[in-house]
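Please check this record.
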Amino acid sequence: MTTKDQITTSIKKMIKERGLTIAELAARMGSSQSGLSQTLISGNPTLEMLERIAKALEVDLKALFESTGNEIHGLVQYKDRTYKIDSVESLKRLLSEIEEA
């Protein structure tokens, strides 16, 4: 999962935890529902947009970047090589390579 995906997932989780809708969050932000939805779909919010979202959710900006607990991230060293693991798929590819070796 990319950082952009993590941020979007984190925002959606916070919206759900607070019992809000995207329309309600957008209203708190003084933004349109369609604008906020498009931002979340594109996964490419500006810093200003992230600050407005954090303020509307009543959290620190850094909370939007924290792990949701559903990701897998790390480095794996195998036979003098280091592999970056950033998704279940990348871990599966590495395991497949190891099994084939």
